[in-house]
Write a structure and sequence with these properties.
- This protein is mainly beta.
- It is built from four helices and 34 strands.
- The strands form eight sheets. Strands 25, 26, 27, 28, 29, 30, 31, 32, 33 and 34 form a ten-stranded mixed sheet that branches.
Length: about 450
């Protein structure tokens, strides 16, 4: 039995054990005797996780879902060679590309020189580049049309250059979303404020799947989503809204992108719906200085723009949608709104109080020994960010545990990379261990599992 047949047999067996369909679990490739010029390559794909709650109000219900997949191959001169998709088959009818979980099995032509694979996920239409087209030109042609019925987020990523041969290991391919995520969390204002609907206005109606050096605005449209707050559900899930939009630039000086909230003040209000406009304004403060409010100039892909609303003052807001849109000043300050801008590739776990937030890569990490197993330390990296001008601090580290940075109080909302070292000869505490990070009134606990 040749090596490719062994791989297929193993995949088939795993598919039976997991209850997967044959197409999901295996790829029938021709025997090496019939097609010695091809080999199976296993690709691992990853998408940055998201941490703030999902919402039933949006069409996109799974941020990481992949509905279709295409592979473009480029040679060592970055010129296009060939394309494979989920519909590609060999002479015997076996699929050449199969995705199972976060793993993609691809049957590729062998190469003598290095090849770069580009993965395009959730494309609407795709035009195969002509052979010899340069990568940059091919990437510019990958575009999508945006509407409220978009069910999957277009994504793109590339492998490191590698030679396609038996046993090749291209490594993980990180896919980047082509959309930005906009969130509203007014759960703390419940039940005094009942959010009925959210509109986002002046949204670009198309975008590029691959990130370009400059963002180009297109024709604009408005989208409105109704909010259904169930009185029997947990209050933490009320007054929340999530939406995805394409990138945009000049969002203040050009055509302004804004959110229009429709809601009723149920405590002291008159029972009438009021309209509140939120612009993309960040509140900033440096230690010893006054608070300033600055407009964000652009909306960027793979980032989250999270509006946190603590309470709505009775009597505020506009009486109509049009009035809210046309008013000179937004309602960000009036309704005590904080805007957080988070890079999903760095920060995925956030805690807030009434004024500041503290974010980390994850509240659970795994520390491992360096490859080879002869290191004295188990190590793991964590990113930390806060908008508190006093910064953040790591306290109460147990003996045998060290960090490269234990406090930061310089520029606010700057992501700091921290390496954690656990000395295997000195640390005698629990596994997992707990590390505490403080910022103002916020105390965040991070569990670190030691992988021995």
């Amino acid at each position: 039995m040749n090596i490719k047949t062994k791989i297929v047999s193993a995949l088939f067996t795993l598919g039976l054990l997991c209850g997967c369909s044959a197409e999901e679990s295996m790829m029938d490739t021709p025997s090496s005797s019939s097609r010695s010029d091809e080999t199976q390559v296993v690709l691992s794909i990853s998408v940055p996780e998201v941490s703030l709650p999902s919402s039933s109000t949006r069409t996109i219900t799974d941020d990481n879902a992949i509905d279709n997949l295409a592979i473009w191959a480029f040679d060592n001169n970055n010129q296009f060679i060939y394309e494979l998709t989920s519909e590609s088959h060999d002479e015997e009818g076996n699929p050449k590309v199969v995705k199972r979980g976060n793993t993609v099995y691809a049957l590729l032509p062998k190469s003598n020189t290095k090849v770069t694979l580009a993965l395009i996920a959730n494309y609407q239409t795709i035009t195969t580049p002509s052979k010899g087209i340069f990568m940059e030109t091919a990437e510019k042609n990958l575009k999508f049309t945006f509407s409220e019925n978009l069910n999957h987020i277009p994504m793109y990523g590339k492998s490191a250059p590698f030679i396609v041969e038996e046993g090749a290991k291209p490594g993980a391919i990180s896919l980047k979303r082509a959309l930005a995520k906009i969130e509203i969390d007014a759960s703390h204002a419940w039940p005094n404020f009942d959010l009925k609907a959210v509109s986002i206005i002046n949204v670009n109606t198309s975008g590029t799947i691959v990130q370009s050096k400059t963002i180009t605005n297109t024709t604009r449209a408005d989208y409105r989503t109704t909010i259904y707050n169930n009185n029997t559900s947990n209050s933490d899930n009320k007054n929340k809204w999530v939406y995805y939009i394409p990138e945009a630039t000049d969002i203040k000086d050009g055509t302004r992108i804004s959110l229009i909230l429709e809601g009723i003040n149920t405590k002291d209000g008159d029972g009438e719906i009021r309209y509140y406009r939120l612009d993309f304004i960040k509140r900033a403060q440096t230690e010893g200085e006054n608070i300033t409010y600055d407009y964000i100039n652009s909306i960027e892909r793979n980032k989250r723009y999270a509006f946190k609303i603590e309470h709505i003052v009775t009597g505020t807001g506009s009486k109509s949608f049009t009035e809210a849109v046309k008013k000179d000043r937004a309602d960000n300050a009036i309704i005590n709104t904080q805007l957080m801008v988070i890079n999903d590739e760095e920060i995925r776990d956030i805690t807030t109080d009434n004024e500041y937030y503290l974010g980390v890569t994850s509240s659970e990490l795994t520390a491992s020994m360096s490859e080879g197993g002869d290191s004295q330390y188990y190590t793991v990296n964590i990113n930390i960010i806060t908008n508190n001008p006093l910064g953040w601090q790591i306290d109460d580290l147990p003996g045998g545990v060290e960090v490269t940075v234990d406090k930061y109080s310089e520029e606010v909302e700057t992501t700091t990379s921290v390496w954690i070292y656990i000395d295997k000869n000195k640390y005698t505490g629990d596994n997992p261990l707990t590390m505490h990070i403080y910022s103002g009134n916020i105390r965040k606990s991070v569990r670190i599992i030691i992988q021995k």
